[in-house]
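Lab intake sheet, docking and co-folding queue.

SAMPLE TYPE: protein with bound small molecule
LIGAND NAME: acetyl coenzyme *A
LIGAND FORMAT: SMILES
REQUESTED OUTPUT: full 3D complex as structure tokens
PRIORITY: normal
SUBMITTED BY: R.K., bench team

The fields below were copied directly from the construct record.
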Amino acid sequence: MLSRGNIILNKNIQASWIIKSYSTVIDLKTILKEQIPIRKNEIQKIKKNYGNKKIDEITINSLLGGMRGNRSMFWRSTSLDPNLGIKFHGLTIEDCQKNLPKLPNTYGQDEKIFLPETMLWLLITGEVPTVEQAMILKVELAKRGRKLPDYVDKVMSTLPKDLHPMTQFAIGIATLNKDSQFRENYEKGSIGKADYWESTYEDTLNLIALLPQLAGKVYSNSYNNGQPLGQFNENEDWSYNICSLLGMTNTSDSMNIQNFDDKKSQDFVNLMRLYTGIHVDHEGGNVSAHATHLVGSALSDAYLSYSSGIMGLAGPLHGLAAQEVVRFLIAMNSNISSPNDKKSIKDYLWSLLNSHKVIPGYGHAVLRQTDPRWTAMVDFAKRHPEEFENDKNVMLMQNLVNIAPGVLKEHGKTANPYPNVDAASGILFYHYGVRELLFFTVIFGCSRALGPLSQLVWDRGLGLPIERPKSLDLKSLKEYCD
Ligand SMILES: CC(=O)SCCNC(=O)CCNC(=O)[C@H](O)C(C)(C)COP(=O)(O)OP(=O)(O)OC[C@H]1O[C@@H](n2cnc3c(N)ncnc32)[C@H](O)[C@@H]1OP(=O)(O)O
Ligand SMILES: O=C([O-])CC(=O)C(=O)O
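RESULT FIELD (auto-filled):
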């Protein structure tokens, strides 16, 4: 083991952005105050000395093919290796599971699963937090998240019950911009460019903190006539509060709508921590992160920027695939004799492909191997055999990984025939009783806020400019071809 002050890292880990130990600093904002000028200076030096250095070539294929593979944006905290998957400041999911600290007095915490709060610290600082640092952030988020403003509650209550949960969620997030400190300061003209990051930081923490309340509000709006199913508990962690506000713990904070016993209640909260801990970020080019970054580059505040990210996440080729996978597994199970019936599964997949539909949960724009987030979700199911061994949908999800890649390879189009995270996640929530498929992506949206919004704080800190690529019309394109 290597020790950096109080920060203990497994010896194989090389976290790329760690520059010094902040073991004595316990406040996130103070660390940012120290880090931002150092990084800004580095970026300015790179621009000055290497500004004209070539990184990539833009081909007509990339121009017409969704910029696939173009290295053309800066993203600080995470990067995606096509074969190994996502790394958070150089740490894999497994590294994070080993090294992010577990916190005392945490409801039923599974030793293998970290809290999203510890991941947020890592994303923002590039440092593995100490227990003390993570505890302080956990408490701060809980304080900031204790109450949804009345005007948001009111707006949400007027929305039609059958409005898609993701649309409700995006509206709720955008509405919160009434309280944006950045927007207010900018309008008053009381801040200059060097100060933008501070109020963006405040907005970011307030927004992340309020997401459990907002998700609970959407759920009760859509599925419980607007009546709350649980209450926020300031002494508990962020993921616990998502679960209790959905009415899905057996504690005094919640209606316990699924009649969980202690074990099931704790398992469900741990599943939520796992899910919301690993969905936070997937480098910068995915639709939700990129949309947040693009809108933020116009100096829209954190609320408007992230509501745009949520709208992108609501597309079926991106986050909404989580809902589509569950629909697909249930439909397949009702068309085949058993989840072990390989031939019927293969036929079913072919019928889908022959009708020009995608196999949801399979394929990826960047990954070329099985998504390690998928592996982490399946590992959760394997560690709870008593819970899942008789679940036909979970069985089918697990069997599919041995069949779908072969079918997709034979079909011959898909660059990556292996499962992505959405292939496993929704069906585990479904198992515990979240049967409202349209709601799954809202949980994804709670988690995804952590990555793109910590990037937004840094975008402001580093003074990154408005994003504005040049487009080409058909005439110019033809001229290039000639
Ligand atoms: C959290 C996430 O966002 S993870 C992704 C979630 N989305 C899904 O699971 C939906 C299913 N998968 C897909 O649609 C795609 O694999 C995407 C959108 C994820 C990636 O898209 P691309 O980078 O364009 O993939 P790729 O280069 O492999 O596409 C080549 C062809 O294979 C097809 N293809 C890709 N994946 C699949 C699939 N799972 N089933 C059937 N066909 C597929 C594409 O539609 C494309 O067909 P076309 O040439 O007729 O247009
Ligand atoms: O990286 C992507 O394009 C899609 C994805 O898996 C994510 O955003 O989590």
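REVIEWER NOTE: The chain has a mean pLDDT of 94.
SIGN-OFF: pending second check by T.M.
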